[in-house]
Amino acid sequence: MDDRLSGPQSHGETGPCRCDVRGGQTMLVQRNDDRPEIHPDAWVAPTAHLVGNVTVGPGCVIDHGATIVSSGPPVHLDSGVAVMPGAVVRSVGGTHRPAFPVRIGADTLVGPLAALAGCTLGAACYVATGVMVFQGALVGDGTRLSAGSIVHVTTALPPNSRVGLRHYAVPRGDGTPVITADLAEARRLLAAAGFFTEVFGEDDPDLAALHRTATRTLRDEALTWTDTPL
Q: Rounded to two decimals, what is the model's pTM?
């Protein structure tokens, strides 16, 4: 790893990294043994929050109110990524449930209020306002995800795909993606994909029991974290 990613600038002290903690905001947080690493050529707004095993590459922009969080698996932003206000980017799992890291390719834009969880985005993607991309999804280079669209678990979109306004991208049984505006079709395919099996390693026809198990797993995972503002 580039030596410039370590040292004082990695936790918000005065240095070549163009970021600070003005206004009393907690911007950078060490989680257990992992702390954010920010390239000195990146720009991070003082109201953004970066937690744990997060690497921000050169030329990245992390705008106000953006949250980038690792629960253990790495979150890596390649060069020139822009994360707009209110977006949430997070890796998930790793101790109490399956691990899903995040990687975002160079020159990709993550729009306002987008939510990315445990997924991989290629280079030069455009992720519009309010997009959701879930665990295990793979979004190919140059793909455009229109406002309000959803890319569900384990969906693999080839390069230069387009998912329309409020459309759903879901996996078929053979692994090929289906892009549809038909909610009923999306629900049918998603049921076969098994969200809770993929994300929590759990399945139970009793929905209340399944949800309690998922909540308990998340609670138990969070209790293993020691978070220290930097």
A: 0.89
